[in-house]
Design a protein that fits this description.
The chain is of the alpha+beta class and 148 residues long. It contains four helices and seven strands. Strand 4 and strand 5 form a beta hairpin. The protein starts with 14 loop residues before the first helix and ends with a strand.
Length: 148
């Protein structure tokens, strides 16, 4: 997996934006352990928010065990990720990133997921919540061969 996250690491960034960057970097590197270390013990991941194929009840993935299981069910099954963040709005202890996550899937397919990805951190910089606003049907409509 290549690193496809673009950001200006030399610029001073708010803590939530730094955490989001570290999260995307760990995902593109396929480094589950590094990714889990970014989350507080009681963190919640909602990706996407609400009921989905990844979370039938729509209550999110809680704590390191739940977030680890989410990785195994979703992230681990992708060949490569590319994050394109077109805009980022930091306020208080949160950041809302607007962009596209391109996933390259086994069998030579890719899917573009447009969304708003919101991270909230606590004082020590650990992520306490990651909420992803995106639409499954809209993302699946972009499925195509990777070379198209």
């Amino acid at each position: 997996m290549g690193v496809d996250v673009c950001w200006d690491p030399a610029a001073t960034q708010p803590p939530a934006r730094r955490a989001a960057f570290r999260s995307m970097t760990a995902v593109t590197a396929g480094d589950k352990a590094a990714w889990l270390e970014l989350f507080a013990d009681d963190a919640v991941v909602e990706d996407p928010i609400g009921p989905s194929m990844f979370d039938e009840e729509g209550k999110g993935h809680h704590g390191h065990d739940g977030i680890s299981a989410f990785w195994d069910k979703t992230i681990a099954n992708v060949d490569r990720f590319q994050f394109t963040i077109r805009d980022s709005h930091a306020a208080g202890d949160e950041v809302a990133n607007v962009g596209t996550i391109t996933t390259y899937l086994p069998g030579g397919y890719r899917v573009d997921t447009d969304g708003v990805f919101v991270y909230r951190v606590r004082e020590d910089g650990l992520i306490v919540s990651m909420r992803a606003f995106w639409e499954t049907e809209r993302a699946m409509a972009t499925a195509r061969k990777a070379d198209e």
